[in-house]
Write a sequence for this structure.
């Protein structure tokens, strides 16, 4: 196995130094073997490989929009070494068989560790629990369970799920969306939805579920993770739940850190997403929440869709946007360049904490000798214009097309093997 | 004029007045034995209707035909759309047929906007109603009707009553009538006013009775049947009692005030039969005016030079009833 000596990179954005990747682990640079490959990384920031808690790989079922292979490649390009593959595939990942299949496809692809997320309820139908224990005990070792795309809205079912996964240290990742308040909803309910004549998606539909779930998690002493927090009120509720000492964690997507519902005025469904883009005040509260740690992590909610599902009228279009390949750039734009997070904190929010929530022992490391050689090198001085045609995803539905964004992932190493080198997929 | 008419918000005051003035000239055609102008001869107007709306479609059809345009009616029913063809493919087909203007009615808000800005067609796009968003030619014909009865709209008070939340007519009118200087009041139960309405250039009220004394016109909106069972209000009767324009409320209006309705009416629900058929109800006239206003929109969008088509029309006026002649007649 080739060894790599990364020279002059700044671990966690601190003082520059050298990193030796040897036999799948970080080692003392003084121990570099003679045949080591040297990488000039002056000016680059080195972080532990990024971990995404929320990725849609679409396989099985929608291989026209993404596969485990292409999604894994997009993840590697984005600096990720592990992704959690959401369960809303076809068939749904609600049995040991399906999660093992996704897990195996990920191993065969070899670009990132693919950790399947198991469905909470059979068929995502919200009626009865899926076999959570079987998925946890399977070769895929599922720890994160979610009906993402739909909400576990039944309070009793949610309570039982929260309780049940305690047996194997699992976590329920809730897609917080009160279904009755959001029937036919198209975009954030506010000034823009009134002007544009689109069915509103009120903030309270998210916040009411989060409040309930925090109370349930506190009551039964279970781990709750809140997916894609999008409103200022949600941030407040999570801050309150954490102040109680409850085991509540939360994620925010890159797009909710940057984009607002004003974009809906184009009626271009590239900006149609669930939860919807909110207001500038919400964006500000989300940035503040991520900065102070109320929101634990950034998760992409990478949601590939084929062209025809976006090249249509808004109401007919699919919800979701690509996120893996642009996540670091958006976070740098929204959080680093604004002075709200330094690179060490970015590593915390994009690697350490999501790895801890997903119980991924070999990710989210320290870059100290001995830890697994999952490393990403980022060039913060680079600026690029996003061109959807350059994406390695099978889909093209990026909302950042044509935008100039800072930062670029130059290299990604998974257990010492480069998946991205010199900005090129390996 | 701009290339498309998608929203009342697209119209400056000058542009709106220009359309209304043009419609005024064209309106006189309706009283002449030969109702046709050669202005758009050889141009093709497509009526692309994804929703049933016989009245709007025939109004556009009559308008286009009176300007001598060729008209193609493309209705979603019985077309490839019902077999799942996308808006894009339908648009490409129309483009290939050489449409100069596409008049689109669609159940999705923003469909006209999408058609105009997606690069699928080069033709002008006229929004004939998109979901719960806008219906700008309805607002223009309402403004036109108001102007005929009340004169200039500056400072005039117009009360719009009913399901503002789901009404494209209310949205377009709130914007256009405000642009033209009118004071617009939206009256509805709180459940049927959109969130964020406070940012609109209008007053709002929950109390119809308090809004009647000073208004110069009342516009009643249709209450769709599907709203009646969706908890927006307790019952049709309660809605009618609180927000219907009945004979008693009508009697409290100023004597010059007119009553409008975009149609089709629910008689006995938002408007009583007595009010609907009253001499100060201009509901039927709105339909007539609709043709003139839509002629003006088609004419201004399609007849070449954006800055002054009138002058060039007069200069090249050929024999027969042309618009130049109409204008001279109108200004006598």
């Amino acid at each position: 196995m080739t060894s790599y000596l990364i020279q002059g990179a700044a671990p966690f954005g601190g003082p520059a130094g050298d990193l030796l990747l040897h036999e799948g682990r970080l080692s003392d640079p003084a121990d570099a073997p003679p045949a080591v490959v040297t990488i000039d990384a002056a000016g680059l920031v080195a972080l532990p490989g990024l971990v995404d808690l929320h990725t849609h790989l679409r396989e099985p079922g929608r291989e026209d929009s993404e596969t485990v292979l292409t999604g894994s490649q997009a993840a590697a390009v984005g600096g990720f070494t592990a992704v959690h593959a959401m369960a809303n595939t076809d068939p749904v990942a609600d049995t040991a068989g399906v999660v093992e299949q996704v897990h195996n496809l990920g191993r065969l692809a070899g670009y990132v560790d693919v950790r399947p997320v198991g469905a909470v309820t059979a068929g995502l139908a919200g009626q009865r629990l899926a076999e959570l224990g079987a998925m946890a005990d399977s070769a895929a070792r599922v720890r994160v369970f979610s009906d993402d795309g739909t909400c576990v809205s039944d309070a009793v079912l949610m309570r039982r799920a929260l309780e049940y996964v305690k047996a194997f240290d699992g976590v329920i990742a809730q897609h917080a969306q009160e279904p009755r308040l959001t029937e036919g909803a198209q975009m954030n309910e506010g000034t823009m939805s009134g002007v544009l004549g689109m069915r509103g998606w009120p903030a309270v539909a998210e916040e009411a579920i989060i409040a309930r779930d925090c109370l349930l998690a506190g009551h039964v002493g279970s781990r709750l993770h809140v997916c894609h927090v999008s409103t200022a009120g949600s941030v407040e509720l999570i801050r309150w739940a954490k102040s109680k000492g409850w085991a509540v964690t939360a994620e925010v997507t890159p797009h909710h850190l940057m984009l607002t519902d004003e974009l809906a005025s184009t009626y271009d469904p590239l900006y149609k997403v669930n939860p919807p883009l909110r207001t500038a005040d919400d964006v500000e509260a989300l940035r503040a929440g991520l900065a102070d740690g109320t929101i634990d992590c950034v998760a992409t909610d990478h949601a590939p869709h084929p062209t025809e599902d976006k090249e249509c009228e808004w109401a007919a279009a699919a919800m979701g946007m690509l996120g893996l390949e642009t996540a670091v750039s958006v976070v740098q734009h929204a959080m680093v360049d604004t002075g709200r997070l330094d690179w060490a904190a970015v590593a915390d929010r994009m690697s350490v904490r999501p790895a801890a929530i997903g119980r991924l022992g070999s990710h989210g490391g320290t870059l100290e000798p001995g830890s697994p050689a999952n490393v990403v090198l980022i060039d913060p001085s680079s600026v690029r214009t996003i061109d959807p045609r350059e994406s390695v995803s099978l889909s093209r539905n990026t909302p950042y097309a044509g935008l100039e964004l800072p930062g670029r992932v130059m290299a990604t190493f998974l257990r010492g093997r480069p998946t991205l080198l010199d900005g090129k997929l390996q | 004029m701009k290339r498309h008419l998608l929203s009342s918000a697209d119209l400056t005051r000058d542009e709106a007045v220009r359309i209304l003035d043009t419609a005024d000239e064209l309106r006189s055609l309706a009283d002449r034995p030969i109702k046709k102008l050669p202005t758009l001869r050889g141009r093709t107007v497509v009526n692309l209707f994804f929703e049933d709306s016989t009245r709007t479609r025939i109004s556009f059809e009559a308008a286009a035909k009176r300007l001598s345009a060729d008209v193609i009616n493309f209705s979603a029913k019985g077309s490839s759309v019902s077999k799942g063809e996308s808006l894009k493919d339908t648009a490409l087909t129309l483009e290939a047929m050489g449409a100069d203007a596409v008049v689109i009615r669609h159940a999705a808000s923003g469909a006209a906007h999408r058609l105009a800005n997606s690069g699928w067609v080069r033709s002008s796009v006229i929004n004939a109603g998109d979901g719960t968003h806008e219906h700008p030619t309805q607002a223009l014909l309402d403004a036109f009707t108001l102007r005929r009865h009340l004169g200039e709209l500056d400072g005039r008070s117009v009360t719009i009553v009913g399901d503002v939340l789901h009404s494209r007519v209310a949205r377009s009118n709130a914007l256009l009538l405000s642009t033209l200087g009118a004071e617009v009041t939206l009256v509805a139960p709180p459940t049927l006013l959109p969130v964020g309405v406070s940012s609109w250039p209008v007053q709002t009220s929950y109390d119809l009775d308090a809004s009647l004394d000073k208004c110069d016109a009342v516009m009643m909106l249709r209450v769709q049947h599907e709203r009646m069972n969706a908890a927006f209000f307790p019952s049709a009767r309660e809605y009618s009692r609180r927000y219907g324009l009945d004979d008693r409320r009508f009697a409290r209006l100023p004597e010059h005030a007119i009553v409008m309705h975009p149609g089709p009416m629910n008689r006995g629900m938002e408007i009583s039969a007595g009010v609907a058929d009253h001499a100060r109800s201009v509901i039927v006239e709105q339909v007539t005016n609709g043709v003139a206003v839509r002629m003006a929109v088609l004419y201004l969008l399609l007849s070449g030079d954006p800055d002054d088509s009138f002058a060039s029309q007069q200069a090249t006026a050929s024999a027969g009833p042309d618009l130049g002649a109409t204008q001279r007649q109108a200004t006598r």
Chain A has a mean pLDDT of 97. Chain A touches chain B at residues 186, 189-200, 202, 266-268, 308, 311-316 (CB under 8 Å). The first strand of chain A starts at residue 4 and ends at 11. The two ends of chain A are 15 Å apart (CA to CA).
